[in-house]
Structures are given as structure tokens and as C-alpha cells.
Specification:
Helix content: 10-25%
Structural class: mainly beta
Shape: globular
Number of helices: 2
Number of strands: 32
Oligomer: single chain
């Protein structure tokens, strides 16, 4: 009998506990329903409530307040994006970050006086421009570092780790070199036409280009040369009179962009030139490339013009998108949407349609803005911050 009484007492206690839990659940349900009714009656917008607290400002942070992220720099930060990672270059180091939480994946101190990086695939190629050192890293480790007996002028890297770079010897002669990730030289070609100022290599590592500057008939001439890796003769060359080169870049499909101070052109199959903007018809303001390495370019009709235009030029040399800007921008990018940085705001546009999407307030301390996924990563002095 005592054991039966204990069993009955235990069952009664369990029943009371279950009734208490059910009461708590019903209270929570009633409170939630009541809140929903009140918010509906007041016609509150959940999106507006969220935006009130987060606001589209530089102070917005991501996971665990990961941003702003401070780097070891006194001269600013330059960002690159390779695959799903951020590469941040400073005057002291290069750091690979996970963009979602700013966790460091890989970092190295370079000690270069004038560090310049090129990124492709998983590779980061860094030179000490005007110095004698260069190195190849991937996003997790160093592949090699070399100290040369010559001065490095400029460089670029392919997705397979092949790197092209130009050097100047002590006697003033220049050489164009292509080297693979095992330090094997695939090309070593003397340059006899002017002074090398820019180089590029295609994503496959099989084609490259270089630009030289010289004087012809008392005029400054930039000559664009294309050459296939392993060969000794140019595939083709093109002169741009009274035009300085800003950049050379191969698209993912293998076409070559020439961006000059006052001209834009595309070279197909290493030998067919298409002038997108003829020399002297535009004034170059800023430029960048999409994830497919296609050109997004900002220009005006003259240097002090308040009216500017941003265009998306595909690898076939066709202007696909054109957007009129009412003021001169500082920076443009197009990892996802076109992202235009002005002195007081950031505006994003659809890459293919040109439609205005979002506007964010900022101040003039922001030096670059790149949209990556749904967020915009900005640099300011030694900081990387995020909005969106």
C-alpha cells in the first residue's frame, strides 16, 4: 500500500507540472497574438523598425561586431576580392579575410617600400615596385619569394599562378618575363620599344600584353603590344597618340582591355583592335572590373565637368549600360551591382539595367566602396568597414 500511495503522489505531481507548462505556453501565445494585433492596428512596418535601428550608415556592423576592422597601416588600405575572400593590402602587410566575420585566414608582412598586388584565382602576386623583390602567395600560404638583381616595374598574375612582370636592368635594358608557380621561366623577352609601363596576363596564363611609352615625331605615344607566352615576337601592336595608359586587363573570356587617360579599347584574339572610345573623345575619371573582369568605366567630356557617365563595357567592346551622374565620383566598383562612391554618398545601380537601387550616406574620409554579396565594404584610413 505505501508503494501505491507513492506512485499516486508521483503521478499527481507530474500532472500538476504538465498543467503549469501548458499555462505558460498559452500565456506566451496570447502575448504574441496581442502584440501582432497591436502592431497591425498601428500599421507598423517591420522593415522600417529594423532600418530605424540599423540605418544605412558607416557604423553598421556584421557578425559579433566584427567591423570596423583595423589594419596595421598608416597610408591607407587597398582591397581586392578573390573568390569569396577579401585581400587587404597595406604598406606593411597583406591579409586575407573572411568577409562575413572579418576573421583572418592568412596574413604576411612584406616589408616592401611600394607594394603592388595582383589577384587571380587563389593567387596573390606582390611586387615591390621600383625595388627588387616579388612574391607569390595563395589564400593560405606562401608559394615563393624572390630577390632579383633587377628592378621590378609592373606585374600581373593568372588564375593558374603564372605571373608576368617587367624588369629594368642596371644598363637600362628592359625584359618581359613570365614565370610559373614553380619559378620556371616560360618567357624571357627583351623590350626594345620605349619604356614598359603596364603588363597583363590572361586568366589561362597563355597570353599576355604590355604597354610601352615613347616619343615619336615630338609626340608622346603609348604602344600596346600583345604576345603569346613562349613566343619571342609580338602578335600585334597598336599606337595611341597623346594617350597615357592607366591599365591593361584581360577578361575571363580572354579579350584585352586598354584603359587610357583619354581612350578605351578592346583587343580580340590578340590582334583585332576595337576602339570603344577613340583617343581624345573622353576624359577618364575612374574604372574597375566585374567578377568576370569586364570593364566598368567612368568618364566625362573634360577634366572639370560635373556631368559624368558610368558605363559597363562587355568583353566584346560593346557598351551595355550607361548611367548619367550629376557629380564627379571618387571610385567605382562592380563585384555585384555597380557601386559608385561620391564625396558624400554611395549609390548602387543594376549592372545590366542601370537602374538606381540604394543610396547610403558617407563622408569624404571613405576612399573605396565595393559591394560584395549584400554588403558594401568600404576603406577609410587604416579601417575596413561594412554597410548594407
Amino acid at each position: 500500500m505505501p508503494s501505491k500511495q507513492r506512485e499516486n503522489a508521483r503521478k499527481e505531481k507530474q500532472l500538476l507540472k504538465e498543467q503549469k507548462i501548458r499555462r505558460i505556453i498559452w500565456i506566451v501565445i496570447v502575448l504574441v497574438v496581442a502584440c501582432l494585433i497591436v502592431m497591425k492596428a498601428a500599421e507598423l512596418d517591420y522593415g522600417k523598425i529594423k532600418s530605424y535601428f540599423t540605418d544605412k550608415s558607416i557604423s553598421m556592423t556584421t557578425e559579433a561586431d566584427a567591423y570596423p576592422y583595423t589594419l596595421d597601416s598608416s597610408a591607407g588600405v587597398k582591397l581586392n576580392f578573390i573568390n569569396d575572400k577579401i585581400v587587404a593590402l597595406t604598406d606593411l602587410s597583406c591579409t586575407v579575410l573572411n568577409p562575413s566575420d572579418a576573421k583572418e585566414i592568412y596574413s604576411f608582412s612584406h616589408g616592401y617600400s611600394n607594394p603592388i598586388t595582383s589577384c587571380a584565382g587563389n593567387y596573390i602576386f606582390t611586387i615591390d615596385q621600383g625595388g627588387t623583390r616579388l612574391r607569390l602567395d595563395n589564400t593560405s600560404e606562401n608559394v615563393y619569394e624572390s630577390k632579383l638583381e633587377t628592378t621590378v616595374i609592373c606585374a600581373d598574375v593568372a588564375k593558374n599562378g603564372n605571373a608576368v612582370y617587367a624588369v629594368r636592368k642596371s644598363n637600362g635594358k628592359q625584359v618581359l618575363i613570365v614565370m610559373n608557380s614553380s619559378l620556371k621561366k616560360l618567357m624571357n623577352v627583351p623590350v626594345t620599344d620605349g619604356y614598359v609601363v603596364a603588363v597583363a596576363i590572361d586568366p589561362s596564363g597563355r597570353k599576355c600584353a604590355y604597354a610601352t611609352v615613347s616619343s615619336k615625331n615630338a609626340k608622346l605615344v603609348t604602344t600596346l603590344h600583345t604576345i603569346n607566352v613562349g613566343e619571342t615576337e609580338d602578335k600585334a601592336s597598336f599606337d595611341f597618340n597623346d594617350s597615357n595608359v592607366f591599365d591593361l586587363q584581360y577578361s575571363n573570356s580572354g579579350e584585352l582591355y586598354y584603359v587610357g587617360t583619354n581612350a578605351v579599347a578592346v583587343v580580340k584574339n590578340q590582334k583585332h583592335l576595337k576602339e570603344v572610345f577613340k583617343t581624345g573623345s573622353v576624359y577618364s575619371v575612374t574604372y574597375n572590373y566585374t567578377s568576370d573582369n569586364e570593364l566598368v568605366y567612368v568618364y566625362s567630356k573634360y577634366s572639370d565637368a560635373s556631368e559624368n557617365f558610368v558605363v559597363y563595357i562587355n568583353s566584346g567592346g560593346k557598351v551595355k549600360t550607361k548611367i548619367k551622374l550629376s557629380q564627379k565620383p571618387k571610385y567605382v566598383s562592380a563585384n555585384n551591382d555597380i557601386c559608385v562612391l561620391f564625396s558624400n554618398k554611395i549609390i548602387t545601380y543594376s549592372l545590366t539595367k542601370g537602374e538606381k537601387k540604394d543610396t547610403y550616406k558617407c563622408d569624404d574620409s571613405i576612399s573605396a566602396a565595393n559591394k560584395f554579396s549584400s554588403k558594401i565594404f568600404v576603406t577609410r584610413h587604416q579601417l575596413v568597414d561594412v554597410i548594407g
